[in-house]
Write a structure and sequence with these properties.
By secondary structure, this protein is mainly α. It has one domain: Growth Hormone, Chain: A. The protein is about 75% helix and about 0% strand. Helix 6 packs antiparallel against helix 9, helix 11 packs antiparallel against helix 12 and helix 11 packs parallel to helix 16. The chain is globular, with a radius of gyration of 20 Å.
Length: about 400
């Protein structure tokens, strides 16, 4: 029962941060409309979100077990509550930058803690894989919900009405804070090294393993693909299909929902099939969708569209790619973490978070540059390049995956 309450707490925290963290695409769209910035300037929000994630993860991941996972999560929630209120009252591009910097720093605390606690409340690799995929699936459900929550606060004739959503988000963070505060939390006594200096050394030593190098490269490439699509999908629908802003945002929820279904399904499939064959198949299908489905989405003829139901069926096609790229992230992470001693989960998660953040930032920035210079119709075709590189890295990782346990 104790583990059940801990798992619920993990779900709640990840759900809240899914909405906060991945609203960046929506805020980019709002920044283009309200704050007089261009695509490249707006894409800087990704940097303000992801660089603090990488920086804070590097600083704290190796010795976070000594600080305490519960304290770290509670601190992250407090920072995020404050940032939401600053965004509401500040209402500027600069406060948007502050918002995502604060959320990024908080998420570093949350993610390293959550991934480490998964190892504490599971006993087998199958349990680890299942809980990891479920939590990541809940994360995607939160993202999908964000695409409905934000439009619900939009009002015609009031460009600032959407800011009221931050009162709701601050309240949700408070609820999550209180639930965790009153939850019993046995954090175990697993630490990476003998002291703080040795903790950092253990994290750095992980980077010397060839298997870990290939793994973090794979993580980097995947997040580059996922975040690049997720961040710019609302703008894609507005520019290419000329959808109203609210509809553009809600359409992007299809991508997030397909990610949720794919990640939860990955936990089931992995019980019967090798992670490698699942991922290679998924990447191949995703590439085919970029080659064949994306052009049909771009060329679809539309009449006047006022609601999501007015969109032709083909307009829903491309976001379904999320169903096939979804299993990659949780299966990769679970494969490496479940093979490591529990005392190394926190530093390894730090590396995962750092390179995920860098991959997301670079992917979103590249897509933003392509949107501005190549046009919205062509930008997403370039996701084929990291997909090809990811396929190669998975082949290499399969050959050396036994080294994770060494």
């Amino acid at each position: 029962m104790k583990n059940a309450s801990i798992k619920i707490s993990l779900f709640l925290n990840y759900f809240i941060f899914a909405i906060l963290l991945n609203s960046v695409g929506i805020v980019i769209l709002k920044s283009l409309e309200n704050y007089n910035v261009d695509e490249v300037q707006a894409s800087a929000l990704e940097w303000f979100k992801d660089l603090p994630i990488a920086f804070v993860s590097f600083l704290i991941a190796s010795f976070l077990p000594r600080i305490g996972y519960k304290k770290a999560i509670l601190t992250g929630l407090l920072i995020s509550m404050t940032a939401c209120l600053v965004m509401y009252y500040g209402n500027s591009f600069w406060t948007a930058k502050f918002l995502f910097a604060a959320i990024g720093a908080s998420f570093a605390l949350i993610k390293v803690s959550v991934y480490s606690v998964i190892g504490l409340v599971t006993n087998t690799s199958e349990e680890h894989n299942s809980l990891m995929s479920t939590i990541e699936g809940v994360f995607m459900i939160g993202i999908a919900l964000a695409y409905f929550i934000f439009p619900a606060f939009n009002r015609d004739g009031d460009p600032n009405a959407w800011l009221h959503v931050y009162w709701l988000l601050s309240g949700l963070a408070l609820i999550s804070f209180l639930f965790l505060y009153f939850t019993d939390f046995d954090e175990g006594k697993e630490v990476p090294g003998a002291d703080l200096k040795d903790d950092v050394r253990q994290m750095i030593m992980l980077c010397a393993k060839m298997s870990v190098i290939v793994f973090i490269c794979s993580t980097f490439l995947f997040v580059m693909i996922e975040q690049g699509i997720m961040t710019w999908l609302p703008t894609f629908y507005k520019r290419v299909l000329e959808l109203p802003p609210n509809v553009s945002i809600m359409m992007s929820s299809i991508f997030a929902l397909s990610l949720a279904v794919g990640r939860i399904g990955a936990g089931i499939l992995s019980k019967y099939f090798s992670w490698f064959y699942i991922l290679i198949t998924c990447i191949a299908i995703a590439m085919l969708m970029v080659i064949f489905i994306l052009p049909k989405t771009i060329d679809v003829e539309t009449d006047v569209i006022e609601t999501i139901s007015d969109i032709p069926l083909l307009g829903y096609g491309f976001p379904i790619i999320g169903l096939f790229i979804a299993p990659i992230y949780p299966l990769l992470n679970s494969t490496v973490l479940s093979a490591l001693p529990k005392k190394m989960h926190s530093p390894m998660t730090g590396l995962i978070v750092i390179f995920s953040a860098l991959g997301g930032t670079i992917g979103s920035t590249i897509i933003g540059w392509l949107f501005k210079n190549m046009g919205a119709q062509k930008a997403f075709y370039y996701t084929l390049i990291p997909m090809i590189l990811l396929s190669i890295s998975l082949w290499i990782l399969k050959r050396i995956t036994k080294e994770y346990a060494s």
